[in-house]
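Field: sequence (string)
Field: structure_tokens (string)

Example rows 1 and 2, in order.
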Amino acid sequence: MRFSKKILTAAVCAVCIAAPAAWAQTGKISNGVVKIGVMTDLSGLYADLAGPGSVLAAKMAAEDFGGKVLGAPIEVIAGDLQNKPDVASSIARRWLDQENVDMITDLTGSAAALAVVKIVKEKNRIAMVSSGGTTRLTNEDCTDRTVHWAYDTYALANGSARALTQEGAKTWFFITPDYAFGHSMEKDASEAIVAAGGKVLGSVKHPFPGSDFSSFLLQAQASGAQVIGLNNASSDLITTIKQAAEFGVAPKQRLVGMIFMITDIHSIGLKATQGMIYTDAFYWDMNDETRAWSKRFFERQKRMPTMIQAGVYSAVTHYLKAIKASGTDEAGVIMAKMKATPVNDFFAKNGKIREDGRMVHDMYLMQVKNSEESKQPWDYLKLLKVIPGDQAFQPLSKSRCPLIKK
């Protein structure tokens, strides 16, 4: 078949016109793909509160964005950090050096999160922490490439410890895991208790992870404290509560989970957890928006989402919106755009990312329902109080972040 010069020229010119348009869309996306790494605990202690659910949340965010941004595909990969800083560091270096990951999110375990954010800064990429809770991420170890998204120990302590102390629970004893998050949680909770007129009678630290908490519970009982604050999480927290029931700790002394998740309530049951008060950043049954997204999540995960998993979806979505608005995935430009753009979704309303990397949003003081109050599966919580973001999180005036100009 022969083509005339006019037809051939027209075809070539059509390609010349179309190609620049495609290049213009993807030319500012490094390696032609936006790659997001969900670094989480896929099979261990924190798998229920983060883990596969966090991976799903990130994938849902990419899917809801249409699977592409600026014409480039969005790829979500997962890595099991095993809650070990050395493992997390190894994965981070491989992802950033060899696999061209643009953003790392979730990051279970504060020690692992602290290790990874340093590497991310070094490689000029972005970290959006949803799991790791230590306030060091926005204080001593803050960077201009880190965003702390869902919660932190200051917000949890400022909600639960302060509220209960003001209600009359004046004496406390802490059972604390001996690692970064536990130390941060105990420090922030102790300061909140003292500020509210209470007193910390003592604390005991246990190995992480743990299995037998009997000796620690006996020390807590012997203290005579009105409240035993549990600074551990997930299966450690669940085991502690179950063993406390065996020892008959409650109702003589009140148990308070300083970091508690809806998945923990589901595992333990309402009978053992009813009446417990704690602070959360998200509840699936809060409003029509939270219910709609959570039911979609449940269809695929068969569990309702935690604040960490909902936070991963929110963080990934905000990141993708910043790329679309900026026309590039360059870390410095994206971070500036994310900080300049309010967060408005089912997770946060009028949220904002401060100079120290803290995403400020409302927190919620919640109470676990009793069996009679619960009307359907996963109907576990009632809202006691909304804590406005500017009250929930550490004020910048107290910040130890070197990015903050005093």
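Row 2 begins here:
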Amino acid sequence: MAQLQLPIFPEGSTSINQNIAFVKQDNTITYIYGSLPVFSHDVDDMKTFRMFTSQLYVNGSASQVEICRAFGVSKIT
């Protein structure tokens, strides 16, 4: 039987949901799934931010509401 992995987020991270968080360090945003960093991009890179958060939604990893709450954006932006 597979063992579940507990999410272990680093100090200073912001939780998107119980499995995904992000941390902003210097000019980089790094996304963490469980305890592993999975993607990072520059803070000012809006195209990459939209691409990755869209992937989170399309893949079922996060809902639109969770993404909107975590980043303080609206669904229409």
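free_text_note (row 2): Residues 14-71 form one domain.
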